[in-house]
Design a protein that fits this description.
Length: 202
Amino acid sequence: MTRLQFEAIICDRCAPTLCGAKPANLVSFSKQESTCQNSPGIEELLAEYEEQLKHYQIHMKVICGCRKHYLVLFYRPDLLQNCLRQKDSMHILENCGYDSAWPVSRMIAHLKERYESDRGLPHEMGVFLGYPAEDVIGFCLHKGAECKYCGYWKVYGDVARARRTFAVYDRCRAYMNERRAAGISVLRMAKDIHNGCQAVVA
């Protein structure tokens, strides 16, 4: 995988988190593209960006490193902590074995453990990604069917609120992709956002 390909994936699938509009995004990277000649391996790219992005309050955690792909959680610890501490969200998490006293790092570690033991994406992942608790619960109850609206997630509750949120995420993606097309790196964009040089979601 080339650096340009890696950044294109981040810009398209992780823009709301990079822009500070979302607590976390989950991104899949194929291992099959990690052996491109004269390009860094996916492991090298993940390690490099993890080290650099944390300077701008963006962290990365590999949730799954199976034979075919890496599943990576990009997250902002402060936003994620606020999200996980909400009463309705915490109720969902406690029912899945989480402890409200745990720090964010332990919450993510438990999420990773549940992913590995269940061999599939735990339903509470939606809480980590900032989905409204009522939509996470609705998805579980209806097994992904009968939603009122579908965008960045399946909506079972407040459609108007979800549409407003989706519009913000769209603006984040447009911003990231436009700047990437202009030759600006993800790390430079993250720095500008961190330093308040860009108002993306105003």
